[in-house]
Amino acid sequence: MLYNCINKETDMAYNYLLLIHSWLRWAFLIAALYAIVRSLNGKLGNKPFTKDDITAAKILIALTHTMLLLGLILWFVSPNVQNALAQGAGVFMKNKDMRLIVLEHPLTNVIAVALIQIGRIKSKKAYEDAVKHNRSLIYYGLGLLLILSRIPWGTSPLFRGME
Question: 2-155: what CATH class?
Answer without folding.
Answer: mainly alpha
